[in-house]
Write a structure and sequence with these properties.
alpha/beta, Maf protein, six-stranded mixed sheet, 6 strands
């Protein structure tokens, strides 16, 4: 069975990706219990660049094939911002609340709807070559946060075709449509073709 290390400490992401890949006969190892975990500064100007940088760093330490990802929110009226700066949009000491407040403040000068999308790039790296896949979920930003289930910009994001924000959807429903699930599903398909 192919074994991959997933470069994340986010438990929600871990669970989602472990389940997704196990259905393809691929075992995903997590960082739980591992030492010498690299602290990667995600300073590239694309999601793919950040994901590859993370994959490189983890492969260098653990020497087994790695899965990594980067994701964020892109708002059309803000020329794609916050983009790769989504996690630190309000500064280096950003919190979800501060980031959401800054986003709403930036959008006050624009008419509704505030068209936006969540974007994810997932990457596989085996020390020699990369395989990348992308996923998006389209929607719009609303004026007031709603919901307790999500994190980041989820309380402000209303996916197309839904009347609930991504923070109001159940985790199961959110994972069916999420940018991350789409990117990793595509990557799992590609890897299932090459696994021995």
């Amino acid at each position: 069975m192919m074994k991959l290390l997933f470069a994340t400490q986010n438990k929600g992401k871990m669970k989602e990706v472990v389940e997704l890949f196990s259905s393809k006969g691929i075992e995903v190892l997590t960082l739980i219990g591992l030492e010498d975990i690299p602290d990667v500064i995600e300073d590239c100007d694309t999601f793919e660049g950040n994901a590859k940088k993370k994959a490189d760093a983890f492969y260098d330490v653990f020497r087994i094939p790695v899965l990594a990802d980067d994701s964020g929110l892109a708002v059309d009226q803000l020329d794609g911002a916050p983009g790769v700066y989504s996690a630190r949009y309000a500064g280096e000491d950003s919190t979800d609340e501060k980031n959401n407040k800054k986003l709403l403040n930036e959008l006050t000068k624009y008419p509704k709807p505030h068209i936006a999308r969540f974007v994810c790039c997932a990457v596989y790296f085996d020390g020699k070559s990369y395989i990348s896949s992308h996923g998006t979920i389209e929607g719009q930003i609303i004026d007031l946060p709603r919901g307790e289930n999500g994190f980041g910009y989820d309380p402000l994001f209303l996916p197309d075709g839904f009347n609930q924000t991504t923070a109001e959807l159940s985790l199961i429903d959110k994972n069916k449509i999420s940018h991350r699930a789409k990117a990793f599903s595509e990557l799992a398909k590609e890897l299932s073709k090459i696994k021995k």
